[in-house]
Amino acid sequence: MTSDADIIVVGGGLAGLAAAASLARLGLSIIHLSPPAPPDRRTSALMMPSVDFLTRAGLIDEPAAIGHALTAIRIIDATPRLVRAPETLFDAAEIGLAAFGWNFGNQALLARFQAAIPDNGIDTRPQPVADYTRDGDLGVVTLADGTTLRAPLVVGADGKKSRIRAAAGIGVREHAFAESALVCDLELARPIGGTSIEFHYPHGPFTLVPAGGRRANLVWIDEEQVLKNARDGGPDSLRLALLERSQRLFGAIDIVSPSAIFPLSALSVAEAGRDGVALVGESAHAFPPIGAQGLNLGLRDVADLLDAVTATDRTRADWGVLASRDYARRRSGDLARTGFFVDTLFRSLLADIVPSQALRAGGLWALKALPGLRRQAFSLGMGER
Ligand SMILES: Cc1cc2nc3c(=O)[nH]c(=O)nc-3n(C[C@H](O)[C@H](O)[C@H](O)COP(=O)(O)OP(=O)(O)OC[C@H]3O[C@@H](n4cnc5c(N)ncnc54)[C@H](O)[C@@H]3O)c2cc1C
């Protein structure tokens, strides 16, 4: 059997498109299976290492052309708990940086990644994948219309419910949280500049992310019913809830986009690749949007995938299997570390027991007071390697 491409990438989200465009830029022939999806209204805070990777890989040019710099993070403990944390400000200047990272609209990023596809192009098809199997050295992908496509390496970037992951038999652990996240764009009377503001409430953070001028992108994590009540009670009910949650620190608030609610879950895989399959993005890992880790981790998947494919001897018939094995090895430490970090952080935010409150408050006091610990926290949060 002959192959139809070097690599088949499944999924047209940010991780899949970043993988397809950057692998094509290495000179590989790519089939990209990207069925139409509703507009992604989220925004992504990407830390400097991710922004540097996107620039190096040619996926974006000047971040300022499509994004907004994140120069500081302010954390306000708004819980009524017995042991509360001090208000804490992390400033990028402390680690000698102009910014921790940049905040981008997901649609702007998708458009930019699309524009980065090399002139000789990739073979993009709008059909979803119905099945996947392995035939010797080739992966065989079956489309919804029954067409089959073959390639040595298949990249599953098909999100949390990944069909490629299931068909490849890669084990997964998933836990659904009672909380969801509401996102929308806001216009504030008092601008937040480059500072991301996080109010910590008992069911999760209420975060205002800089979006330029008086704009901010809201990510509000709370019990799903609380979010639905606020949204479905009409624009005034949502606006009043936002004023209350923001403690009116930024004056009047206008809601300038439709709002969307995302159920939250945590997902991890036994291995990120094997037998000619590599999983990138949320097919391999998902967690609540705190500490801006999800897409940052997804882009580190793409970076390691490029390295694994480049390092593999592609004259061998079984190169897809070798590359997937090398990719899984490169990803294992980062996936375990980041998953543990976000899980611990999220559970500590929700914990109602006094020892956990004390640990979290004590942790923030220590972060406030100890420069060495602050530096370590910066490096962990930014996903430095
Ligand atoms: C509220 C919220 C805020 C966030 N904020 C941040 C942030 O600030 N910073 C950050 O780093 N991360 C953030 N994240 C995480 C980030 O948005 C995700 O990690 C990222 O968008 C996942 O991209 P993906 O391409 O892996 O998955 P998806 O965007 O889910 O894409 C999967 C794609 O696969 C396609 N697909 C599904 N099934 C098939 C099939 N059978 N065949 C073919 N295609 C298929 C779908 O159509 C879809 O296009 C946030 C997440 C949420 C929920």
Can you describe what's shown?
The chain has 385 residues and is α+β, with helices and mostly antiparallel strands. Helices cover 35% and strands 30% of the residues. The protein folds into two domains: 7-39 and 106-174 and 267-351, FAD/NAD(P)-binding domain (3-Layer(bba) Sandwich), CATH 3.50.50.60; 64-105 and 177-263 and 366-381, D-Amino Acid Oxidase, subunit A, domain 2 (D-Amino Acid Oxidase, Chain A, domain 2, 2-Layer Sandwich). The strands form four sheets. Strands 5, 6, 13, 14, 15, 16, 17, 18 and 21 form a nine-stranded mixed β-sheet that branches. The chain has a six-stranded mixed β-sheet with strand order 8-2-1-12-20-19. It has a three-stranded antiparallel β-sheet with strand order 3-7-4. The relative contact order is 0.17. Bound molecules: flavin-adenine dinucleotide. Flavin-adenine dinucleotide binds at residues 10-16, 33, 35, 37, 42, 44-46, 128-129, 157-159, 163, 181, 183, 219, 262, 281-282, 289, 292-296, 298.
How would you summarize this macromolecular structure in one to three sentences?
The chain is α+β, with helices and mostly antiparallel strands and 385 residues long.
